Amino acid sequence: MAAVSYPIGTAGPLQAQSTIESNRFPPGDLAIWVFILAELAAFGAFFGAYAFTRMRNVEMFNHYQASLDSDAALINTFALITSSYFVVRAVAAIREDDSRGCVQWLLAALAMGLLFLVVKGHEYVHHIEAGIRLSTNKFYMFYLSLTFFHFMHVIMGMVILAAVAVKANRGGYSDREHTGVETGASYWHMVDLVWLILFPLVYIMR
Fold it and tell me: Which residues are CB-neighbours of 16 under 8 A, at least 6 positions away?
C-alpha cells in the first residue's frame, strides 16, 4: 500500500486530532460541565442564603467569624491554588505526550489536596472539642455546612485525580486522547474556585 503524504505545512490526521483535543472548549467531557454547573448553582444558593442571613445577624456573624482560624484557612487557600497549578502542569504534560510528567504533577496536586484535608480536619476536631455543633447558632450552622460540603467535594476531586493518575501511569492517555485528564482538571478547578469564594465570604468579610 502506498504511503500517504501530506503537503508541507499541513497536519496529518493524528496531528489534527491532537490539535482538536488541545483546543476543545470547554475542555474535558461535556457531561462534567453539566455537573459542574449544577454544583456551582448549589453552592451559589448556599452562598446567597449565607449572605442574606448574615445581613440580618451582622453582629453575631462578626463575633463568631473572629473565632475562626484564619491562618489555617490561608494555608488551605495556598494548598488549593498550588494544587490547581500542578493540575494545569499535568494537562500541559499529557498534551506533550509526557505521561510520566502528567502523573508526577497529579501526585503533587493530590499531596496539596491531602494537606487541605488534614488542616481542615484539624479545624473540625477543634470545633468538636469546643462543643460547637450545627445547632450552636446560625453562623456555625452555615460555616459547618458550607465548609463540610466543600470538604466532601475536595475528597471527590482527589478520587477523580487519583483515578486519572492511575490510568495515565498505565499509558491510558496520550497527546491525541486525554479527555479524561482535562475532565478531572476541570472538576478540580471548580473545587478551587468555590474555595476562593468561600474563604473570603466566611473568614474575612465583615
Answer: none
Mean pLDDT, the chain cut into blocks of 10 residues (206 residues total): 46 46 64 93 96 95 94 98 98 95 98 98 96 95 97 98 96 91 95 97 90
Residue at grid coordinates 494537606 = 115
The number of domains in the chain is: 1
Q: Using alpha carbons, list the distances in angstroms from residue 205 to 55, 96, 188.
A: 12, 42, 25
Residues 6+ apart with CB under 8 A from 92: none
* Full residue range of the structural domain in which residue 111 is found: 13-204
Contact between residue 76 and residue 119 where contact means Cβ atoms under 8 Å apart: yes
In angstroms, the CA 161 to CA 135 distance is 35
Contact 99, 173 (CB under 8 A): yes
- Alpha-carbon distances of 203 from 62, 69, 109, 142, 147, rounded to whole Å: 10, 8, 24, 12, 11
Q: Output the nine-digit C-alpha cell for 43.
A: 453552592
Alpha helices in the chain (DSSP H): 13-23, 30-56, 58-65, 70-95, 99-129, 138-169, 179-199
pLDDT of residue 17: 47
CATH (domain of 196): 1.20.120.80
Q: Is 8 domain-assigned?
A: no
Distance CA 66, CA 56 (A): 18
Q: Which helix (H) or strand (E) holds 70?
A: helix 70-95
Give the whole-angstrom CA distance, residue 203 versus residue 206. Answer: 9
